[in-house]
Amino acid sequence: MALVETVPPPAAVVIEKPVGKTPWARVKPLVLALIVPALLLAFWQVATTQRWTRLIPTPYEVGEYMIDFAVGGIYDDAFSGTLLTHLIASMSRVYGGFALAALFALPLGLMIGRIPTARMVLDPFLQVMRPIPVTAWLPLSMILFGLGPRSAFALVCLGAFYPILLNTIFGVRSVDPKLFEAASMLGCQGNAQFYKVVLPAALPSIFTGLRLGLGLAWFVIVVGEMTGVPQGLGAVIMDGRTLSRTELVICGMIIIGIAGYLSDRIVVMIGNRLLAWSPTHHG
Amino acid sequence: MAESKTPIIEIKQVSKVFKLQDQTINALHDANISIRKGEFVCLIGASGCGKSTLLRIIAGFEQPTTGDALMWGSPITGPDPTRGMVFQDYALFPWLSVRDNIGFGPASRGLAKAVVKETVDKFIDLVGLGKFANAYPHQLSGGMKQRVAIARVLANDAEVVLMDEPFGALDAMTRERLQDELLDIWQRTGLTVVFVTHSIEEAIFLADRVVVMTPGPGRIESDNPLLLQRPRDVASPEFNDIRRVMSAKLHSHHGKKAA
Ligand SMILES: Nc1ncnc2c1ncn2[C@@H]1O[C@H](COP(=O)(O)OP(=O)(O)OP(=O)(O)O)[C@@H](O)[C@H]1O
Ligand SMILES: [Mg+2]
Fold this sequence. Notes:
Distance between the termini of chain B: 45 Å
Strand content of chain B: 25-35%
Shape of chain B: globular
Number of helices of chain B: 7
Structural class of chain A: mainly alpha
Number of strands of chain B: 10
Order of helices and strands of chain A: HHHHHHHHHHH
Oligomer: heterodimer
Shape of chain A: globular
Helix content of chain A: over 70%
Distance between the termini of chain A: 42 Å
Strand order of the largest sheet of chain B: 6-7-8-3-9-10
Order of helices and strands of chain B: EEEHEEEHHHEHEHEEH
Largest sheet of chain A: none
Radius of gyration of chain A: 24 Å
Number of helices of chain A: 11
Bound molecules: adenosine-5'-triphosphate, magnesium ion
Largest interface: A-B, 32 and 46 residues
């Protein structure tokens, strides 16, 4: 009983598939991505072997130390084979702090975005608090939460909080008003609109906020672990500094970079799956 | 076509005033219109003459400042599934597939899953989007999106379909095709359609009645029944005669304003 017997071919629905890609096309992104790190590595190598600086170890030394740090058996000092312990300690703070931040920021953001009174009460306060950097909170946090992991946790949480909050508010406030009209003329009115319109419409923004928040959680982990925690990548870097062991510092930096990157990729993959409907969300 | 006594939609001395900080806008002044079930009414007029405002009052998105908007004799107090709106910019839910967009209304009304599915299948078929049932709106062309918007309203058992320049953003060919499909659906279902357009030709091609509106303040200038037989031929002399008359009515006002 179709009124239209002929429809145009579903060209728009066929999502580009990597058919017939040459091997070069497949490895090209990887090769391009490795150019800058390779150049940096080369420069580092030259700078240290030419003795432009005596304080920075050579890439080879750092590499060797990284292996010892990861599995031990070379130097057998206090840090040998402890990478996993520190990584897990940091990850638990990053993800724990991030989860706690999301737990506060999401409902708060939804409320501020939707309820004018909540916005008027909370928005000015939060706008004033926002520019205060996490580093500035360090002393207060140590007084409030003591020396140790609780303080680290709180600082990471604070770092992840604002991007989640602000993007949630933005997402909730920028829902196309036509969609509310469309929903209400279809029989979805009142509170039901919150779940059926506001939440899904705000999801891309919320997701962006979560992604930025997690990134910032990794970003502030070193500050968070300046609070005198015994374990964690931040603690390793702090120890490396006090012991003048630059190779340790560099190892910690590299691991934070890689862990943060991988963690972001996972989030992006989840996002691409969840937000397949959103044309702007293919990271 | 059977004619019932009570009009399905009745607009009685409706005025709408918008108050902005420093000015008041008489968007609609003393509008009267009565629409019978099954009629296809087109609203036409210059920009700003209150066409959308009138349509939105019928939809229940706006309340009249004075006067009454009635459906089957009772006041329209808010949006309702019996009056479905088709927006110019589609207003589809981007996070829902074609299937779920069309099922949004039935699901919101709490119909059983099986009933929703059956309804959706029927209307996907009706607008010929079977192959696109699982596509998202951003993967569709404008014409397909508007088909989904129409199906979404029909699937919800709307008796009155309100269309605000629904084909305004489409290319000429898609537009003509959708006009044909809309007439086809209208003739099969006995829907009542109120259709806003800027195109005289579109109005004459579609409507049982063309309501001409004029701005400053927005008012209904004339209400013109069209006795042209369907299917209509845009190239016929009769069609052109009517087009000339309507064009004169539409433009007479501009002369007045300039004077
Ligand atoms: N929500 C609103 N607030 C203030 N003024 C409004 C509002 N909606 C419409 N108006 C004003 O009312 C008048 C009529 O607007 P309306 O949108 O009904 O015109 P229209 O005939 O649909 O025009 P167009 O052909 O351009 O769509 C305009 O002057 C417009 O600026
Ligand atoms: Mg309009």
